[in-house]
Amino acid sequence: MAGRFRSTSPEAAAAAPGAMGVRTSLVRTPTVRSRGEAAIRAALFVAAILSVVTTVLIVLSLVRETISFFGDVPIADYLFGTKWTPLLRGDQQSFGVLPIVYGTLYLTGIGLLVAIPLGLLCAIYLAEYASPRVRRIVKPIIETLAGVPTIVFGFFALTFFTPEIVRGLGIEVNQFNALSAGIILGLLVLPTIASVAEDAMSAVPYSLREGAFGLGASKLQVSLRIVFPAALSGIVAALILGASRAVGETVIILIAGGQSANLGIDPRESFQSMAAFIAATSRGDIPTGSIEYKTIFVVGFTLFLITLLLNALSIRLVRRYRQVYE
Amino acid sequence: MTGAQIAEKARSKPSVLPAPNGRDQLYGRLFRFAMYAALFLAFLGLGAILYDVAISGAPRLSTDFLTKFPSRIIPGNSGVQSALLGTLYLMLICAVFVIPLGVATAVYLEEYADRDRWYNRLVEVNIQNLAAVPSVVYGILGLAFIVRGPLGLGNVLLAGGITLSLLVLPVVIIVAREAIRAVPPSVREGSLALGATQWQTIWKQVLPGSIAGIATGVILALSRAIGETAPLLVIGAAASPRFNPDGLLSDFTAMPIQIFVWTQDPNREFVDLAAAAILVLMIVLLLMNSIAIVLRNRYEQKW
Hints:
Chain A is an all-alpha fold and 326 residues long. Chain A has 13 helices and two strands, in the order H-H-H-E-E-H-H-H-H-H-H-H-H-H-H.
């Protein structure tokens, strides 16, 4: 799109001299009209810059308090400590972040265990098997799932899934437990994975499928051995995107996962994630500059870095699969 | 030979393809079964959520529920007036910030930006990354810069609105860019050839041609904004206030916060109120989505 309208740039005019070496510029001198155009362009640019400003502000706010936090707590204690009790007083207070990082990954892991197989099967069905008519019905239903606010998932996990389904199946769980929260987290990211993976598979050119069918491959073989591998980087990007959503999800875990920093492996127990810790601790009334306040920022910064890393990875992968076929 | 005869002959010949063997067919069937099972589970999840909310919430739904204020003591005397109004105001504030900023950014990136310039690439990468920042981190930003710090507004309606605006701005930009990109270059070329300036072309041709897509994106973004809980929790929205916000600098609450507060109540009757409030929120979202669909069908341009 660059320069779509610029009929003649100054450089091009200079490079194409008129007859007998007389340089005739096609670029007009500024008029009221062109000044107005330039002003509009500048205003639009300022709006675009706002997104950069937002990022800078996010990083700034996180870094400032994080540095101040590490003035009070040694960085090694934070990164490698295994006891997370920042809100207690005196000797009981400890700032080892590992339990909530582990809790975040543990819950995300349960979620992905649910969302990856279900999401990919849905994606393969929509991309390869479904007739256009079925697709028109099924796709909006899956997208509806993506539009349900996360608080509703949390409500469902706490008031129905844990007591009626999980306990109904005879699994003795705490009221707040990683199992329910994780499974419902999986339900939340399922549409993300399904729709991004489906896009990736739909982008695989049809000639690849025709070639395989021509060689006598079955539908299943074409789907799993031709289309799936051809779309693999896009599919991996979908999974990373799903993981990144799960890592950042707050309310489901806050409501149904509980608030105890846990380093165990029993999913029937309560776990806490980084995002849930932030929301549980900050309710608008903690004093600025207190250690609780700084803790929110340092955990937020950790979370921010993890999701940024995941996102960078996914953007890179998507770009790679685009380069192949478009 | 007639066509029918050729077809007959072809049919009588054995296929060059290997006969489908039993194992492949079995795998094919199993795979189909697995896909149907996955779809079924996804639908079941959605169905169970709607069922749970409807069963506990529907009996509580009444006009009283919409017009009363939340009570901390008597569940039967509780309503969502302050939360519903808070949510509607938040939506308005978001729209005021997000529509001009989002569309301006999208126009700049699609119509003006030279992608070889590092600063334009920076803006693009930035927007992609902002869209992936967890909402709770936006809450922290709101707390540090809007509620306290430089702006120092306090935990008021405007602070909530700005925080949510920043959160959904990337969504609006991304969708608006797609809508603008869908306007074919020939439309622009025609306009420019008739002597219109670049801005006249954008204002009179490109934007009217992409308005359906932009409006859909804005509505989607606003429905995401009013469903968000985490950022409002972090900046400190009020719990169950018995008053409506009376201005931009007034304390406020919103539907998700009210739902959150009621969900956490040990009293089961309050939990049922949470379900009723979820129904109200979902009806609002459904209305917004219907508007989006109508807009898209009515104004969508076929090029």
